[in-house]
Amino acid sequence: METLGPILVGGHASSAIIAGHYAGLWTTLHASPGKKWTFADLAEAAGCKERWVREWCGVLSCAGVLQLSEGPMVSCSEDISGALLPDSELLCFYTCLEFTMDKEPKIGASFKKDGPLGCPYSDYPNFHPWMENWTRVKNKNTNYPQQFVDSVGPELRAALNKGIRVLEPGCGRGLHVKGMAEAFPNSTFIAFDIAEEVIAQNKEENKIDNIEYIVNDFCNMPEEWNGTFDYLMIFDCMHDLPHPADAMKGLKRVLKEDGMVTMVDINTSTDMVKESKNPISAALYNISLHHCMSVSLAMEGVGLGACWGVEKALEMLREQGGWKEEEISVDLESIVRHAVYRLKKGKGLCA
Fold first, then answer.
1. Segment (H or E) for 150
2. Average pLDDT over residues 335-342
3. Cβ(275)–Cβ(269) under 8 Å?
4. Are 154 and 161 in contact (CB under 8 A)?
5. Helix, strand or coil for residue 260?
6. For residues 123-137, average pLDDT
7. Closest by alpha carbon to 176, among 161, 162, 192, 194?
8. Of 131, 114, 104, 93, nearest in space to 10 by CA
9. d(CA 278, CA 137)
10. What's the pLDDT at 350?
């Protein structure tokens, strides 16, 4: 139990942390950092029932997240409550458990040789809302798109200001393309996703004159797109694809003679032994086990998974994508836990 006991406690504490988020308790605690509360006072301040708050405090004080003293009185450090506010990326990693833990029977069955290939996207109705929220939090905390554009280089900002044709594959709820289109109205954007319901929602809720949303498959981009885009931007979707090699082969094809691709993906090592030295990567592997790898395999794909790693990504970009060593650069610093691959065709955006 020396190893498994703390893991068990952490699992149950994580569930209570998520419940506290929905109850508004972390926001209430953070408003008065270090304050000692009676259960009744905390419940009243948060607009909650005292009995529920009392039990919740029991879970998290036993786990060491909250401090309980005689009275009883409960308090929370400012660091902890601050890390669990609604605009916290850490909280997003807790709430992702909502679409992973309810899949255990089917995920377990998928391990078996005679079991299903995996869980398809249709099994994850709350994935896109979660991804939308995570993207919104990341974008807010990193001043997207301005900071992102500056990190790529001055040539991208100059081109976007002048007016170029941009493609975003796997756009999801469209927050990345929307941010770009609003910031750079002289450029035109096409954003696509394979999920019809997501594209329909984008057309309804994210209408901007210089964006066109369409349904399309990243692994099979249309021939009529050949040589028609100046810039492709890809965010956190390559590793989910059933056939990422096919998608990579299409990148150069749809770019003009001079163009650029940025591909943002998870920053891990392909070497699992090396990555196992980083405990937080357990969360990344678990999200992949329960979603990224699973949805790819369910489509009879290769199941790259979120932790496919920088080494594997570079290998595939060279061997399947046809990018030469001198056409590729990687930024591991600008976005936390992410790698930004910059791919330049011809003269890039400087032409």
1. helix 146-152
2. 95
3. yes
4. no
5. strand
6. 93
7. 192
8. 93
9. 23
10. 76
Amino acid letter for position 236: D
User: HSE of 259 in the Cβ direction (CA atoms, 13 Å)?
Assistant: 22
For 85-140, give the DSSP string. Answer: STT-HHHHHHHGGGGTGGGHHHHHHHHSTTS-S---GGG-TTHHHHHHHHHHHHHH
On the question of pLDDT at 351 being above 70, the answer is no
| Token output for 123 | 């099994």
pLDDT, tens digit, 9 for 90 and up, residues 187-223: 999 999 999 999 999 999 988 999 999 999 999 999 9
Average pLDDT over residues 55-63: 98
Q: By 3-state DSSP, what share of the chain in percent is helix, strand and coil, each rounded to 5?
A: 50, 15, 30
Secondary element (H or E) of residue 167: strand 165-168
- Closest residue by Cα to residue 272 from 284, 260, 263, 261: 284
| Contact (CB, 8 A) for 29 and 81 | yes
Reported pTM = 0.94
Of the candidates 125, 124, 129, 133, the one whose C-alpha atom is nearest the C-alpha of residue 89 is 133
Q: Is 223 exposed, middle or buried (0-12, 13-18, 19+ CB in 10 A)?
A: exposed
Q: What is the mean pLDDT of residues 76-95?
A: 96
Phi (first) and psi of residue 205, to 5 degrees: -105, -20
Region class of 309: left (phi > 0), else alpha (psi between -120 and 50), else beta: left
Residues pairing with 232 in the sheet: 167, 261
pLDDT in tens, 27-40: 999 999 999 999 99
By the 10 Å C-beta count (0-12 exposed, 13-18 middle, 19+ buried), 125 is classed as exposed
